[in-house]
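Subject: design request, 189 residues
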């Protein structure tokens, strides 16, 4: 397989041992640049997560691997755009979920609630990353909103343990949605 990175092309055998070597070499070189790893493009497919496992799983059929790096500002801008897009989709879903919990949540509502928790993990991760790449004022905002969301999640988990659907609905409607609307309005993009 050919690995394209920082203007160079390196050849590696299609073995798990060489995948390990390639990843080690890439990580070493990234640490020496001012750029940030964005994703891999493997035979035309963009991969944003589980890179190493994908390479191992598909090692025998991989031809070309492109390492995509971005400037810190580019990474922050892309992440802000992704966060904004996610919030645009998530807020109406959360409003509907609150309504469902007010009406006495069904099994599918609990499934949606579980997805809400996964979404919050992504949001918290995005805010953590943005904190690293943003200017000082924006970074301070991201830290504050991250702490606020973490606090809301702790309260929400307590209500979940008690199976208190009215409290869950209230929290989604008046804390979660309002916080995410605020974040959407203030995400620096």
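Subject: RE: design request

Done. Sequence follows.
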């Amino acid at each position: 397989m050919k690995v394209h990175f920082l203007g160079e092309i390196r050849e590696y055998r299609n073995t798990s041992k060489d995948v390990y070597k390639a990843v080690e070499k890439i990580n070493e070189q990234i640490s020496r640049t001012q750029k940030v790893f964005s994703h891999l493009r493997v035979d035309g497919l963009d991969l944003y997560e589980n890179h190493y496992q994908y390479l191992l799983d598909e090692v025998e059929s991989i031809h070309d691997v492109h390492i995509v790096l971005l400037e810190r500002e580019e990474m922050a801008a892309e992440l802000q755009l992704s966060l904004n897009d996610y919030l645009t989709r998530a807020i109406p879903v959360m409003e509907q979920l609150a309504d469902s919990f007010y009406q006495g949540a069904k099994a599918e509502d609990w499934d949606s609630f579980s997805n809400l928790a996964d979404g919050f993990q992504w949001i918290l991760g995005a805010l953590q990353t943005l904190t690293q790449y943003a200017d000082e004022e924006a970074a301070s905002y991201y830290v504050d909103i991250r702490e606020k969301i973490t606090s809301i999640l702790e309260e929400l988990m307590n209500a979940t343990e008690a199976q208190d659907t009215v409290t869950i609905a209230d929290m989604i409607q008046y804390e979660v949605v309002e916080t995410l609307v605020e974040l959407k309005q203030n995400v620096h993009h």
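The first helix runs from residue 16 to 30.
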